[in-house]
Specification:
Elements (H helix, E strand, L loop, with lengths): L2 H14 L4 H6 L4 H10 L2 H4 L3 E7 L12 E8 L9 E5 L6 E5 L14 E9 L11 E8 L5 E5 L1 E2 L6 E8 L12 E8 L9 E6 L5 E6 L13 E9 L11 E8 L5 E5 L1 E2 L3
Parallel strand pairs: 1-7, 9-15
Antiparallel strand pairs: 1-4, 2-3, 2-5, 5-6, 6-8, 9-12, 10-11, 10-13, 13-14, 14-16
C-alpha cells in the first residue's frame, strides 16, 4: 500500500476542514468543521488530550524562515510509518510553543488515540506536510491524558540522494511585475516530460531575489521515486499562492541534470503575456 499517497490525501482533507484554529473560526458553517468544534469541546475527549510545549535544542543553530510551519504528529508507540493517529498544524507559533493534541485532531478515527503514543514535532521550513532536508524534528513517548510534556526539536533532517543547487533570479525587464508576496513553486520533471505530476516540487517563500535554492531526492512526490537523470527545472512566481498556473504569473525553466551545481534559473517570461 502506498501509505504516503493515502496520508497525503487524508491529511490534505484534514487541513482543509480545520488544521488550525483560525481556519475553524472562518468556516463554522461547514458540517465537518462544526463536528470538529464539538469534539474539541467534548470533556471526555479532551480528558485524553496530551499537552505541553515544544522547545528548540539550544545546540541547534537554526533560524525560522518565513512560511515555516510546526507540525505535531501522534502515532502508536513502535509505529514509525504510515498515516499518524492525529496531527496538529501551527502556522503561527513562537518557540517555545504551547501545544495540545487530542482525539479531535484524529486523521481517520478518534478510537486510535489510545494507550501509549509517540509524539513527533517537526519544524518544517517550507510548510510542506512531507519532511525535507533542513527540517528539525524531535519525539517523545507519552500516554493519553498526559500533561506538562516537553517535546524537544533536536534533530536536523539531512539531505539524501542527488540534488540540484543554484540561484533563482528575476529578469530586470520584469521588475515592475514583481508581486509583493513572493511565493515560488519549483518543479523538476524528467527531461521531455511536460504533463502529469512532477518528479519533485518545492513551495518557497522568497524574501528577496536573487536567492539560492536546492531541490532533490527529499522533494520527490512519491517515496519510491528516484531523483536522477536529465531533468527540466521550472520555477514559477505565483501571484496568489495557488499551485495552479494563472495568467500573469512569472516563470522560467532550463534543462539540467539531477546532480548539477551552481545552476542559474531565471524568471524571464509572463504566463499569458
Amino acid at each position: 500500500m502506498n501509505y504516503w499517497a493515502l496520508f497525503s490525501t487524508i491529511f490534505g482533507l484534514f487541513l482543509l476542514i480545520g488544521g488550525c484554529d483560525s481556519e475553524l473560526k472562518e468556516h463554522k458553517g461547514h458540517p465537518a468543521v462544526v463536528k470538529k468544534l464539538e469534539m474539541q469541546s467534548d470533556p471526555a475527549l479532551q480528558a485524553k488530550a496530551v499537552s505541553g510545549r515544544v522547545t528548540l535544542d539550544p545546540d541547534i543553530q537554526a533560524g525560522i524562515p518565513v512560511g515555516a510551519v510546526l507540525f505535531i504528529y501522534a502515532r502508536a508507540q513502535g509505529v514509525d510509518s504510515g498515516p499518524p493517529v492525529a496531527v496538529r498544524k501551527m502556522t503561527f507559533f513562537q518557540l517555545p510553543q504551547e501545544f495540545s493534541i487530542s482525539p479531535a485532531d484524529a486523521v481517520m478515527t478518534q478510537e486510535g488515540f489510545e494507550g501509549p503514543l509517540t509524539l513527533t514535532a517537526r519544524l518544517d521550513r517550507d510548510g510542506n506536510a512531507r519532511a525535507g532536508a533542513g527540517d528539525i524534528t524531535g519525539s517523545v513517548d507519552v500516554t493519553t491524558g498526559q500533561k506538562g510534556v516537553t517535546l524537544v526539536l533536536n534533530q536536523v533532517i539531512e539531505e539524501t540522494g542527488k540534488k540540484v543547487t543554484g540561484t533563482i533570479s528575476l529578469d530586470p525587464a520584469l521588475q515592475a511585475q514583481l508581486p509583493a508576496r513572493k511565493i515560488l513553486f519549483l518543479f523538476a520533471r524528467p527531461k521531455g516530460v511536460k504533463r502529469g505530476p512532477p518528479l519533485a516540487v518545492k513551495r518557497i517563500f522568497a524574501t528577496q531575489l536573487p536567492m539560492t535554492f536546492s531541490i532533490g531526492q527529499s522533494d520527490t512526490m512519491l517515496p519510491d521515486s528516484e531523483f536522477d537523470g536529465p531533468i527540466t527545472l521550472t520555477v514559477r512566481l505565483d501571484q496568489d499562492g495557488n499551485a495552479s498556473t494563472a495568467a500573469g504569473d512569472l516563470e522560467g525553466s532550463l534543462d539540467t541534470h539531477a546532480d548539477a551545481k551552481n545552476v542559474r534559473l531565471v524568471l524571464n517570461r509572463v504566463i499569458g503575456g
